[in-house]
Amino acid sequence: MSEFLETIRVSEGRFMLLPLHAERMSRTQTEAYGRPNCGLCPGMADVPVDMRTGEVKCRVRYGREIEAVEFERYSPRTVRSLRLVEASADLDYHLKYADRSALTALRAQRGDADDVVIVCQGLVTDTSYSNLVFRSREGRLYTPRTPLLRGVMRRHLLEKGLLSEADITLADLQGFVSVMMINAMMPPGAIPEIPATAIGGDAYRW
Fold it and tell me: What predicted TM-score, i.e. pTM, was given to this entire model?
C-alpha cells in the first residue's frame, strides 16, 4: 500500500501548481526516507485524452517510488455547514499520508453538518480535507497559522500576499464574517464562502 498521496488539479488539460506539488513530494521523501527519489514526470507526461477538458483530479500514490497515477473527473462537494470537533494533541497529518483514518474518524462526528472544523490544542486548524480561510469584517483574509497540512493552494496564496497567517481560537470566530475552504482542487471561488455563523458545535454557540 502506498504511504503517501499527492492530489493535483488538472484544468483544461494543464497541471496546476505543479512545482509546488513536486517540492512537497521531495520534502516528504526526504523526511520519510532520507532523500528524494522520484519526480512528478514519469507516468504523468500526458493527461489521458478523455481527461483534457474540464476539471480533473490527478492522484499520485507513492512511497520511495511513484506507485500509481490516477485521473478522475472532479466536482467539489457542496458545503453549507461545518461542525467544530476536538482532536487529540497527538494528531499528526503534517505529511500527506495515504492513511486518512484519523481524519475520517473526526469527520464521522459531523452530525448533520457537511464537514468538520478540527480544533487542536485550542486552535482552529483545517477541515477533514481542506485548509481554511476566514474573512474579517474589514475584508482581510486569514488562514490558521498551524494547519494539520500545509496545502499547496494555501502556500500559493500566502506567497502571492493574498492571505495572512494567524492563530485562530474559538473566541476569534465571532470576528469573522465568512469562511472558505481551499485545497489543491479548490482555489478561492471554487465553492461559495459560507457564513462564519454556519460553524457550530456542542461547546460553541454564537
Answer: 0.94
Instruction: Check whether residue 103 and residue 194 sit in a common domain.
Output: yes
Number of domains in the chain: 2
By DSSP bridging, strand 176-182 and strand 194-195 are antiparallel
Q: Could you count the other beta carbons within 10 Å of the beta carbon of residue 130?
A: 24
* CB neighbour burial string for 96-106, b if at least 16 within 10 angstroms, e if fewer: bbeeeebbeeb
Q: Which of 204, 176, 180, 202 is nearest to 190 (CA)?
A: 180
Q: Is 178 inside any structural domain?
A: yes
Report how far residue 28's alpha carbon sits from residue 23's, in angstroms, rounded to the nearest whole number. 9
Structure confidence at residue 23 (pLDDT): 94
Q: Flag whether 205 is in a domain.
A: no
Of the residues 29, 48, 73, the one at which a domain ends: 73
